[in-house]
Amino acid sequence: MFDEIVHAPNRLRICAFLAVVREAEFGTLRDELGVADSVMSKHLKVLADAGYVKVTKPRGSGRVRTWAALTRAGRKAYEDHLWYLQALAADAARGPGGSTGANSGG
C-alpha cells in the first residue's frame, strides 16, 4: 500500500538505509543523505511519531549520540511501500489494461 509517510524522498532513503542495518547513528544517516541536522531531525521525528523508527540516546561515557532503528511496523510499512511502487512500475510497463491493482487508488 502507498504510504505517504515513507514516500517522502528523505524518509524513503532513511528507511532504505535502516532496513539493512540493526541501527544507525544520527551523524551517519545525516552524512549518507547529505542533509543538515535540522532536516534529519525533522524526518526522524515524523518516522518516530508514526511508530516506524525508534530513536534512542544511550547514556554512557563521552558524548551522547542519537541512534535510529526501524521498528517492526516501520519495516512492514517500508516493505509494503516498496511492493506498491514495484507493482505501479510493472503496471506502467505493461501499459493500459495491465493492472495489478497498484493504480486502484489505495
Automatic annotation (TrEMBL):
Annotated signal sequence range: none
PANTHER family: BSL7504 PROTEIN
Annotated ranges, domain Winged helix DNA-binding: 11-87
Protein name per the record: MarR family transcriptional regulator
CDD domains named in the record: HTH_ARSR (cd00090)
Organism this protein belongs to: Streptomyces daqingensis
